[in-house]
Amino acid sequence: MEILNSDAIVERLKQARVYTILTGAGISAESGIPTFRGENGLWKNLSPHELASIEAFYRNTAIVNEWYRHRRDIIEKCTPNAGHYALTEMSKYLPTFYLITQNVDGLHQRAGVSDVIELHGNIMQNYCIRCGTRYNVQQFDEIYEHASRHIPRCDCGGVIRPDVVWFGEALPAEALERAFQAAENAEVFLSIGTSAQVRPASDLPLIAKKHGAFFIEININATMLSSSADLLLQGPSGEILPKLNRDLHRIISAN
Ligand code: BV8
Ligand code: ZN
C-alpha cells in the first residue's frame, strides 16, 4: 500500500530540504516501554505530578527514585524498534534532518541517530542538586544500594536526582532553542507517537505549520494536533515508518 498516495504530496516532499521530526512515548511503545497516558500508561494510578515533579521528589524522594530505577530497568531490557531504525535511515539521506524527542529513554541514539535533541533529558543520567556532579546509571546504582532511606547522596552531601525535566521545570535552554529553530525552518514536520499534551514541546508542530511546513502526524489515535495535519497516517509507528522510509527514499533518490 503506497503511503504517499498523491502526486501533490510526493512533489512537496521531493522539493523539501528541511525535515524536522518530533517524537513522543508512542514511538517506543512497540519496544515494550509503557507510554504515560495510554491504556497501561505509567501514570495510570498515579498522576504525573505525584512522580515527575520537583515537589514529588522532595516529598517522596525514595518513591520517585524507585520509579525511575523501575523505568530504567524496563528500558535497559528493551531495544529500538523498526520505527526508530526507519528514522535513522531517513537521517542518512534527507538533505537536513532534525530529530527532537520528548522521550528520556535514549532509544533514538541506540538506533544510531547521532544528533538527538532531548527536550526532557535522559533517564540514564543523574546529577547532584547541590554541586552538579554527574553520575551514570552504574555509579548511581552503586550509591543507591547503600543509601540510607533510599536517598542517594553525593560526596558533598547533596541529593542525587535523575537528569530529566519535571513538570514546572524549565527545559534545557539550548535544546529548546534548537527545537524552536528546527520547527521554524521545517519544510516538512512529522509528529510521531505523542499525545501533544505537554508544552512547550506540543507547540512545535504548530510553530512549523505557522511557518509553512507540510505537517504529517503518525499516531494510533487522533490527537489535538490531528485537525491541523496535512497528512494523517493512523497506525503503529513501527509499521508506518518503514513504509514511509521506503517511499521517501525512492522519491528523494529519484531526484
Ligand atoms: C515548563 C520527563 C516552564 C520526565 C515529562 C504552557 C507553557 C509551558 C508550560 C506549560 C504550559 N501549560 C502548562 C504547562 C506546564 C506543563 C504542561 O505542559 N502540562 C500539561 C500536562 C498541561 N509543562 C511543563 O511543566 C514543562 N515545563 O514549561 O516550565 C518554566 C519556564 C521557565 C522556568 C521554569 C519553568 C515541562 C514538561 C516536561 C515534563 N516532563 N517527562 C519523565 O519522562 O519521567 S512529560 C512526559 O510527557 C514525557 O516526557 C512524555 O514524553 C511527555 C509527553 O507525553 P507523550 O510523549 O506524548 O506520551 P503520551 O503517553 O502522552 O502519548 C503517547 C502517544 O503515543 C499517544 O497519543 C498514543 O496514541 C500514541 N501511541 C501509542 N502507541 C503508539 C502510538 N503512536 C504510534 N505508534 C504506536 N505504537
Ligand atoms: Zn554534590
Q: Total domains, how many? A: 2
Bin the strand percentage. Answer: 15-25%
What is the CATH domain class of the largest domain? Alpha Beta
**Helical content class:** 25-40%
Give the integer mean of the pLDDT values.
92
Structural class call reads: alpha/beta
Poorly predicted spans = none
Write the layout of secondary structure elements.
Layout: H1 7-15, E1 18-23, H2 26-29, H3 48-51, H4 54-59, H5 61-77, H6 82-93, E2 96-101, H7 107-110, E3 116-118, E4 121-128, E5 134-136, H8 137-145, E6 160-164, H9 173-184, E7 188-192, H10 204-210, E8 214-219, E9 231-234, H11 237-253
Parallel strand pairs: 1-2, 1-7, 2-3, 7-8, 8-9
Antiparallel strand pairs: 4-5, 4-6
Helix pairs in contact: 6-11, 9-10
Zinc ion binds next to loops.
Can you walk me through this structure?
With 255 residues, this protein is of the alpha/beta class. It folds into 2 domains: 1-33 and 80-120 and 171-255, TPP-binding domain (Rossmann fold), CATH 3.40.50; 40-77 and 124-164, SIR2/SIRT2 'Small Domain'. It is 40% helix and 18% strand. The chain has 11 helices and 9 strands. The chain has helices spanning 7-15, 26-29, 48-51, 54-59, 61-77, 82-93, 107-110, 137-145, 173-184, 204-210, 237-253, and strands at 18-23, 96-101, 116-118, 121-128, 134-136, 160-164, 188-192, 214-219, 231-234. The strands form 2 sheets. Strands 3-2-1-7-8-9 form a 6-stranded parallel β-sheet, sandwiched between helices. A hairpin with a 5-residue loop joins strand 4 (121-128) and strand 5. Helix 6 runs parallel beside helix 11 (237-253) and helix 9 runs parallel beside helix 10. The longest helix is centred in the N-terminal third of the chain and has 17 residues, at 61-77. The protein is elongated and about 65 Å long. The two termini are 22 Å apart. Residues 128, 130-131, 133, 154, 156, 158 line the site of zinc ion. The site of ligand BV8 has 37 residues, from helix 2, strand 8 and helix 11.
